[in-house]
Amino acid sequence: MARPDTKLADLGRTWLFSSLSRKELASVGKRADEVTVPAGKVLTAEGKPGHEFFLILDGQAVVSRGGRDIAHLGSGQYFGELSLLDRGPRSATVTATTPMTLLVLGQREFSAMLDEVPGLAHKLLAAMAAKLRESWAVTFG
Q: Is residue 42 in some structural domain?
């Protein structure tokens, strides 16, 4: 089980939550569930709707698209953040390659948090804008 301060630090390193204060990160952490999954567990399926964000506390996973492995993820890495915002289809399949411990934040809990702390939405929008600018700079130079 990861220490709470480690979880908060890992959450704060994700682009979606990077602009949040320690108190706001603690609120996110309280709403998230820590879960363990066995090796082989499919965490997200390409093309299926997404409703949660995953932060890897321990273990490893493989990311595949179109049946081809495209990335490997480990402790401190995350996936599914866009599903908190749009409930859109997953862009890839993520499968545990080892037993894993994950911090999982559902879309419903995320939305409730935004309703309770309106200033949080502004910070998240700013983080999204920064990420979009970064993507455009990489794509369009």
A: yes
Determine contact, residues 85/120, Cβ cutoff 8 Å: no
CA distance 102 to 45: 17
**pLDDT, tens digit (0-9, with 9 covering 90-100), for 26-56:** 888 888 899 999 999 999 999 999 999 899 9
pTM: 0.80
DSSP 46: T
Tokens of 99: 């037993």
Domain membership flag for residue 112:
no
Separation between Cα atoms, residue 66 and residue 46, nearest integer Å:
8
**Helix pair 107-116, 118-140: axis angle to 10 deg:** 120
Domain count, the chain: 1
Residue 140 maps to a domain? no
